[in-house]
User: What shape does this take?
Amino acid sequence: MHTTDADRALIEPRITALVAQHTGVPEDVPGDDAVPRVCRNTMDGVVAQGVASSEGGKRLRALLALSAYDAFGGVSARRGAMVDLACAIEVFQTAALVHDDIIDESDLRRGRPSAHKALEDFAGNVAVGRGLGLMLGDLLATACVSIANDAAGRLPNSPALVDAFLNMQREVEIGQVLDLAVEQAPLDEPDALVEASLGVFRWKTASYTTIAPLELALLAVGAPAARARELALAVGRPLGLAFQLEDDLIDVTGSSRTSGKPVGGDIREGKRTVLLADAIAGADGGERDELIAMFEAERRDAHDVRRAIDLFTSTGAVARSRARIAELWDETRLAIAKTTLNTAQRASLTAMCARFVPDVAGR
Assistant: This one.
């Protein structure tokens, strides 16, 4: 089997090449006189930002797709097509993050200016830059479908692969709508908030982070569509929920395994999370009112961040999140154990899945 480190080295340049290829400026875009030249220069700048935005990240989604392809007996001669399909997932993530940063008004992504912010600087105009950011997200979303379609044509189950890829996009879009709706949810019903937040995790995160990579890999090795979907959900749904829960937990614990994510970012944004809901549910009357008032306020400062983190710990919310993650990780491991994979294949796939929840799986 291929090692994940070797695949990581393969994936990064391939994504860059595919993004450049599928978002390149067409030959017939005007570029002679002053106004057309501005148009071409702007388009060149957007494309360049698309390539820059695609760089970096852990590439867990692509690595999971390739690990599953290998574990379930993917043919080596077709692995190049599977690499491109895995890269298409990562390009889709880039498109989603570009739009996400505009929605969340985030100026930074992985320690660098977010795409729309870089395009604002490029254009010298905030409104134009944000508009270009929207269009960059659209260009990348279209490009990833083109990449996936090309790759699917070289693999078994080609129509089903394209359908699954498009369904992944649809589910994330639904998840984004749900995510925005949850931000309007009342804080005095923590159980309902937990249920709604977990629903967002399933649709917005798990759909493309863990479910789709597994489903696409299974289809690419020739599995029937219904079986591929069933198995991908069994393994990927709990894993995707655990992944997002751990990501939210990192926001308050500052795990050493995170790649520079600032502690307290979700608190400053006032995000409605499972962690917050568990804290409200576990708090006494005074602390409960304090948390609700803090997160209903227009903004939160450094003192609020420290206080919220203290309350998340003292109310048992941090411990509850760790328990939830452990339960979901056990569910994923059991689903893998129930497959027809041999011992080595199960071990390989389990090890790859463990990368999504290192703070729990590494214990």
